[in-house]
């Protein structure tokens, strides 16, 4: 199975766990035997369980690359959109990547699927069936139609021509109101879960039809000049040969705190105490201090380095405009080499904790407008400052003036307290360099 | 007026703002024209407004001395209990302090009052009247009787002999249940607010009667050998000549989050956003990240470096057993020289932010089992390390090996990131020294 996972934009609907640089699919919230995994880790694991040889490519933006490598390792394919250009260009880029970089043949089928459905293994069996159906060539596109469990206003609907397991599509319907949804369902409509399969050749032809490019690198290079256009508008609405396959298994879209907490196997994640008078309360605490809840009903509490949410569960779907107002610097980020967390913010200083994974290093870089001090607190590493290498261990202090080139490589897991000093401290004040040899 | 303010023990009933070393009376929660003030600051300011010449002595434990000086300055008298020995020894020590240290005459009257009533200026006028009444010598003790506003089960009751403004006391009653409280009130009972006045000589004689000591320093020296005994049991219950003076003004005991939030002039203190669906919600946020509340009713939310409380207001009076279970190191403390806050905790390191007020210095000290690194982030100061002085400014780094004697004096407000490194980091690992000259 060739599968493209669409890893969508950042968003604040699960604030304070998601924010401008940390998307909900990377939040480690699902309990497993070996700790907690994120949506993207769960989906990736499930795919590999159903089909160990599956080629998985994640179509995403530059900002997510570090988090993906950090959570899934280096083996996963990533088709990086240089900028946001809606779903058709993203799918065109991914298909060119599959063909030119991964070497997938023109006759093979590809399944495209969102990265964040909360589903069981049968869903991935259904994806496989979708790919096999697309390979038959009866239709140019094969969609998944999810059997509705209630008249939702959140999803588009697909009305199939017949009641068979696989059927041609009669019509597509936009997100309806509740009454209309009921009437769709009485006509046998299915939810459109945003999953579709096609032969690689079909989509590559579509891409060349609508975009003037030679190959993947050419498309990548001119990506920012492309017109924004959705896959639905560019392809689906104009395609007469579309099939739909029914799926009746468990399927949940964990887009809000209300739906997310329903998927938690235990009410509390992190350090929290709930008294007996609490009812239907979920806590997700990423801080290292306790949360105490007393006498709450139908409430979700979440704390992260970014902030604290306390919300009635129903009301939690309305947080976006409130958290959009918050203008705060990023307090925690996963990087390809590890992670950092802001500990203290002052007018002319910023103190962060830097954690590097064993064997990893940050970019060789300098800053124009700030000095930096590294205090090594645990682990072993090698620091490079203006071309000079030096091993470091706990207790070592490295001071770096503005302009000085520096980086550190972790030998074992390495932790440092980094004190930044300067008048206008900004993440944009960073020049990267190739390493001198 | 000579006034002794009893600054009672630490407690966790206002956790996470109060804890083992930070008592509720030091929480800055009351809005004034110039920012926020604490209970002790509010009471001290109110006393000085009613009587600018009042001698104010705070009877308290060692752990509160730094916070008192930090909030009230150096002028306030402090009678320090070397350890906890219940109210009678504490009052005996304070009276010896007033006589031997402050030089208050034997015939002068003294008013003793808790440090944390939430009251208006008329209350302090009433204290003055209480002192004047005691000076007359009609009775040995003069108590304040607060006119009850409801049949409370939280207070003791005083039944006066007559309905006059000043009357002899007929009987004292323990905290009753609601029904009994109603019947007391129908008999004209008053709340016992723990306020009483006496002549210095009376109480000093009582002290000598029950405790074998010569003067203040002798009593201080043998304080830990004294028997625990309450003032009520040792003095009040045995004293036939007790008067009570009525007080009908505003009086509140802010002992729980429920009562404390009633005294807040605005629902939010600190960084917080409440949506319109919130009703009767109070937020006290001491962290520098936002709290977002959605659709909550009758809830108090409080966040500090120690933790986060989210509680139904009624339920908030039951938090003690839950927070008592929390075994966590102190994350924030006020000191006589400023304050510190824990930023990061690891197995073999602790990172704190140290803030020193201008002109202040910490004790000259060393540690046996940890090295320390100071990263100066703002202000100017003078560091002393093993007797050597050195001026410091932002960007300076001072490293101190275990055993090395050190301290810093702030010239301007000084802020440092202190990294502690060692296997068993503990606040008890501290040796203090006199400064060499």
List keywords for this structure.
homodimer; 437 residues; alpha+beta; 6-stranded antiparallel β-sheet; 5-stranded mixed beta barrel
Question: Can you characterise this structure?
Answer:
The structure is a homodimer of 437-residue chains. By secondary structure, the first copy, chain A, is an alpha+beta fold. Chain A has helices spanning 39-50, 65-72, 87-101, 121-136, 178-186, 200-210, 216-221, 231-234, 257-262, 320-324, and strands spanning 2-6, 30-32, 35-37, 55-61, 77-81, 109-114, 117-119, 141-146, 157-160, 166-173, 190-199, 242-247, 251-253, 268-269, 272-274, 279-285, 291-294, 297-304, 307-312, 332-335, 338-346, 349-356, 364-366, 371-378, 381-385, 388-392, 397-400, 406-410, 414-421, 431-433. In chain A, strand 9 and strand 10 form a beta hairpin. In chain A, helix 3 (87-101) crosses helix 6 (200-210). Chain A is globular, with a radius of gyration of 24 Å. At the A-B interface, strand 17, strand 18, strand 19, strand 21 and strand 22 of A face strand 17, strand 18, strand 19, strand 21 and strand 22 of B. Strand 17 of chain A pairs parallel with strand 19 of chain B.
């Amino acid at each position: 199975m060739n599968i493209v996972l669409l890893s969508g934009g950042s968003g604040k609907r699960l604030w304070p766990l998601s924010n401008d640089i940390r998307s909900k699919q990377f939040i480690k919230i699902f309990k497993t035997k070996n700790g907690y995994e994120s949506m993207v880790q769960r989906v990736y694991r499930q795919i590999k369980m159903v089909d160990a040889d599956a080629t998985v490519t994640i179509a995403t933006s530059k900002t997510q690359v570090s988090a993906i490598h950090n959570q899934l390792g280096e083996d996963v394919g990533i088709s990086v959109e240089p900028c946001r250009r809606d779903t058709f260009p993203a799918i065109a880029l991914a298909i060119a990547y599959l063909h030119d970089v991964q070497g997938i043949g023109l006759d093979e089928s590809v399944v495209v699927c969102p990265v964040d459905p909360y589903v069981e293994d049968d869903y991935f069996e259904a994806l496989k069936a979708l790919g096999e159906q697309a390979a038959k060539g009866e239709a140019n596109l094969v969609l998944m139609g999810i059997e509705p469990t209630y008249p939702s206003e959140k999803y588009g609907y697909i009305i199939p021509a017949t009641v068979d397991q696989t059927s041609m599509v009669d019509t597509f319907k936009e997100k309806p109101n509740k009454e209309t949804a009921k009437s769709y369902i009485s006509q046998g409509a299915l939810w459109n879960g945003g999953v579709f399969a096609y032969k690689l050749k079909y989509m590559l032809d579509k891409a060349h039809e609508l975009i003037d490019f030679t190959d993947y690198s050419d498309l990548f290079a001119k990506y920012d000049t492309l017109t924004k256009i959705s896959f639905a508008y560019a392809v689906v609405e104009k395609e007469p040969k579309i099939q739909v396959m029914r799926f009746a298994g468990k399927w949940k879209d964990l887009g809000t705190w209300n739906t997310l907490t329903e998927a938690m196997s235990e009410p509390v994640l992190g350090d929290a105490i709930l008294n007996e008078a609490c009812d239907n309360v979920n806590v997700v605490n990423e801080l290292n201090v306790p949360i105490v809840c007393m006498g709450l009903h139908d409430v979700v509490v979440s704390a992260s380095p970014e902030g604290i949410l306390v919300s009635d569960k129903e009301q939690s779907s309305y947080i976006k405009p409130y958290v959009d107002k918050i203008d705060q610097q990023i307090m925690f980020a996963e990087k390809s080499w590890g992670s950092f967390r802001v500990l203290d913010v002052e007018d002319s200083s910023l103190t962060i904790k830097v954690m590097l994974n064993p064997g990893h290093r940050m970019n060789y870089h300098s800053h124009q407008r700030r000095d930096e001090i590294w205090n090594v607190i645990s682990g072993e590493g090698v620091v490079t400052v203006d071309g000079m290498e030096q091993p470091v261990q706990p207790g070592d202090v490295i001071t770096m003036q503005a302009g000085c080139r520096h980086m550190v490589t972790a030998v074992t897991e390495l932790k440092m307290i980094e004190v930044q000093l300067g008048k206008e401290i900004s993440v944009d004040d960073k020049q990267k360099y190739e390493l001198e040899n």
